[in-house]
Design brief:
Strand content: over 45%
Helix content: 10-25%
Distance between the termini: 32 Å
Largest sheet: 5 strands, mixed
Radius of gyration: 15 Å
Shape: elongated
Number of strands: 8
Strand order of the largest sheet: 1-8-7-3-4
Structural class: mainly beta
Order of helices and strands: EEEEEEEEH
């Protein structure tokens, strides 16, 4: 199971983000693939602007979580969970442009 983009992803508040989970090497489709934020299952009813698309197939299956306009409250640990494999954890840090620029400056100075 992989999540393209790495284990930590940054996005500025107000921007859209897509988290994708890929499960490969399957001999049959998984029974379920879903997203959790913390320990709570994500649904499209969470708030407006959130959508989830899942393809369950033998070979490669995927699930994508779209957040159309991020808010600071979207910051957290997101997990892609499947009955076929263990979960992969992803931390999405939502920041405004000024905080992100400050983070970039601190990395250059390290």
């Amino acid at each position: 199971m992989t999540i393209p983009g790495g284990s930590i992803q940054y996005v500025s508040s107000g921007e859209g983000v897509m988290l994708e989970c890929l499960i490969s090497g399957l001999t049959s489709p998984p029974m379920s693939i879903y997203w959790e934020k913390g320990s709570k299952v994500m649904t499209v009813k969470e708030r407006s602007g959130v959508s989830i698309e899942t393809e369950k197939m033998a070979g490669v299956s995927r699930s994508s979580l779209y957040i159309g306009r991020t808010e600071l409250s979207d910051t957290g640990n997101y997990s892609c969970v499947s009955d076929a494999l263990t979960e992969a954890v992803l931390l999405v840090v939502t920041q405004d442009d000024e905080a992100q620029a400050s983070l970039a400056r601190s990395r250059v100075g390290s």
